[in-house]
Amino acid sequence: METKANTTLIGLFTLGVMAIFALFLWWFLRVSDRQDREDFRIVFSGAVGGLRTGSPVYFNGIRKGEVRRIDIDPNDPRKVVAVVALQPGTPISTATRAGLNVALLSGIASVNLANGPEPAQPLQREAGVPPKIGPDVPGGSDIMSGAQQTMNTLNGLVERLDRLVAEGQGSVQRSLNNVERFTAALGDNSDGIRDFLTQVGDAAKQISALTQRLDRVTSQVESMMEGAQPGRITSILKNIDDLTGGLNAQSQNLGDLLRDARTAANSLTQTLGSVNEVATTFDVRALNRTLAGADRVIQSLDSERIGRAMANIDRFTQALGDNSANVDALLKNATEVSSKLNGMADRLDALLKNFSGDGNNGMFAEFTATARSIRTLAERLDTRTAQLSTSITGFTDRTIRDIQSLSADGRRTLSELERTLRSLERNPQRFIFGGSGVPEYNRR
């Protein structure tokens, strides 16, 4: 009869042998690794998140060793000292630079070594101290911290944008309402604006035609003045000046003469009136008796001498009576001529001063400058009117289209921001690591 084997003991024995073999193999490899590899120091000037003992060390992307030890620099707590073990033959020199590479998904860090382009010498070893590799280049931990800062900044920006939109919603709505009312007013008054612009254009054309006529008149006057003989014009002006001077000098005598003539006419008129009144007051019978007495007296006188005297008196009175209207008209005309001569002298003096102005201050110079100014004003008004009409038409069309586009873009932007924020709240890791997120299944 066979004895029954104890399987438990056999299994334990087998596991023990395998464990002893594994420990021996690990010890052998570790001892050989320590004997064959060379230690180097790397000083990092920042956080080394994700780096731990046993992390791989790469040289130009090829694994050449691992991290043996990590500790804080006793001289500067802001720095971290990492001791790495590299395979023999790794080309470490004074130009070698170390960097920290962090995997974005797993967060595990590794050391990456690379040589610079400049020629360098191999590192010299000191007794008991591993050689130091040069300053580290920016590592992957900086990327993670930078990403975290970026996320914080983005979060603050989104919050401020949300507050800004919430606070300025009323102002934006009021601005849109004001723009809508403005465009509606322009549309309602489009006929009036068109009529106004048409009237302004017609006025500008009329002013332009007027300036052209004034320019032609000025040119004709200038050509006439240029064609005239300067000496003759000077002589004419001198004669007119002498005439006005003589009239001015004799104005006192002429005034006295006219006043005397007016006084004589008034006296004659009063005398004739008195004679008429006396004639009306006499009685006819008394007059007959007086005439009879006078007749008797006359008969006693020389009839021929009396006849001649009466004839002379009769002719004088007849001539004076026949020309009384002419005498009144003569006196009136003399008065009017005196007034007109005085006014003409004043106007002629002013005209001569304006006509013979010094330099550019003459009448024709001012007239020419005025005509040119009016023409320039008309041209500018015509140009500005056309520009104003084009600008108003383009502004009304573009403003309506731009406001509609702005409103639509604003709504789309707000919708996109709201959808992005909701997606970020539901699945933050999708924003960090990408992808479509962890699929979810409904349990049945």
Automatic annotation (TrEMBL):
PANTHER family: BLL5892 PROTEIN (PTHR36698), MCE_MLAD DOMAIN-CONTAINING PROTEIN (PTHR36698:SF2). It comes from Phreatobacter oligotrophus. This is Phospholipid/cholesterol/gamma-HCH transport system substrate-binding protein. Keywords: Membrane, Transmembrane, Transmembrane helix. The chain crosses the membrane at residues 7-29. Pfam families: MlaD. Residues 42-114 form the Mce/MlaD domain. It comes from the Bacteria.
